């Protein structure tokens, strides 16, 4: 029977190039919830063959951190995915990121590949979770709601740069620096797709790693919108992201009050509270926040 993965609770996902032991080590020693060791964009084609055994050896040498050490493999429409998996799966990485998908069929194909590598390496079948980059191709934008019940998937995330390339755009930004409509739509599709699938939505990177104020504002905004975490490209971004996606004491206290109000009035659909009315969606949000904070 397939393993039923729970939506992952991970606030920060830090990329580290798979051809740099120094940067992988620095990322692992930091506060990121997940380290995404990259065999795709961060590694030049000519260096991929050298990077694969480096990634294997790094994960193998750090068994206590294995659950945090995920690998972004190359996309299925290229020649490198199976080579990546053959190299890293014997080390039993914590999870896999699949980029540039075209739809659910790519995830199902990767599931079969992973199953074979798990069997070959004595790993429990179905135990390797996936995060899917679901908006990097134009075709994938039409399949954002197709991931419900998809094997292994615990999170969905989105990207703007490859999507711009896919549709032939010269830019993905408005004159004020904000994302233009197509890319805001991709962000919305990601959070709705994740909600449909019952998995965690993870916000894309902020490329300007020096502007931590802008990062804070964006991370707080997308958390309000339903995102559960964010990708990062630099260790300096991690404390900001972790703080933005961690419920505050005030939020926890308010959520607990709402839960307590409903608990004291069982069977009530709506109830007065602090001069307003609360209904069941408020209770669901409060319970979700308390669960995220480990209080429920």
Automatic annotation (TrEMBL):
What SUPFAM superfamilies does the annotation carry? Phosphoenolpyruvate/pyruvate domain
Name the UniProt record assigns to this protein: Citrate lyase
Q: Which cofactor does it need?
A: Mg(2+)
- Binding residues for substrate, per the UniProt record? 72, 136
What's an example of a GO molecular-function annotation for this chain?
lyase activity
Per the record, the domain of life is: Bacteria
- Which GO BP terms apply? oxaloacetate metabolic process
Sequence similarity:
Belongs to the HpcH/HpaI aldolase family.
> Which residues are involved in binding Mg(2+)?
136, 162
Q: Which PANTHER family match?
A: HPCH_HPAI ALDOLASE_CITRATE LYASE DOMAIN-CONTAINING PROTEIN, LYASE BETA SUBUNIT, PUTATIVE (AFU_ORTHOLOGUE AFUA_4G13030)-RELATED
Q: Which residues form the HpcH/HpaI aldolase/citrate lyase domain?
A: 11-235
- Give UniProt keywords alphabetically: Lyase, Magnesium, Metal-binding
């Amino acid at each position: 029977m397939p393993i039923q993965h729970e939506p992952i609770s991970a606030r920060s996902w830090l990329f580290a190039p798979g051809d740099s032991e120094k940067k992988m080590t620095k990322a692992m020693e930091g506060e990121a919830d997940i380290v995404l060791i990259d065999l795709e964009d961060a590694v030049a084609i000519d260096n991929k063959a050298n990077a694969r055994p480096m990634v294997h050896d790094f994960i193998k040498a750090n068994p206590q951190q294995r659950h945090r050490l995920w690998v972004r493999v190359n996309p299925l429409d290229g020649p490198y995915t199976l080579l990546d998996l053959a190299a890293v799966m014997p080390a039993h990485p914590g999870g896999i990121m699949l980029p540039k998908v075209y739809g659910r069929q790519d995830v199902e194909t990767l599931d079969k590949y992973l199953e074979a590598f798990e069997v070959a390496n004595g790993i429990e079948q179905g135990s390797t979770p996936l995060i899917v980059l679901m908006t990097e191709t134009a075709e994938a934008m039409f399949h954002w709601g197709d991931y419900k019940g998809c094997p292994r998937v615990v999170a969905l995330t989105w990207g703007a740069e490859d999507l711009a390339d896919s549709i032939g755009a010269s830019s993905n930004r408005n004159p004020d620096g904000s994302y233009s409509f197509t890319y805001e739509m991709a962000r919305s599709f990601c959070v709705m797709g994740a909600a449909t699938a019952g998995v965690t939505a993870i916000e894309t990177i902020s490329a300007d790693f020096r502007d931590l104020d802008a990062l804070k504002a964006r991370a707080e905004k997308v958390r309000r919108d339903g995102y559960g975490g964010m990708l990062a490209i630099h260790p300096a971004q991690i404390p900001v992201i972790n703080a933005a996606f961690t419920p505050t004491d005030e939020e926890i206290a308010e959520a607990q009050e709402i839960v307590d109000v409903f608990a004291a009035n069982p069977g009530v659909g709506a109830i007065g509270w602090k001069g307003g009315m609360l209904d069941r969606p408020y209770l669901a949000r409060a319970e979700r926040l308390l669960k995220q904070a480990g209080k429920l």
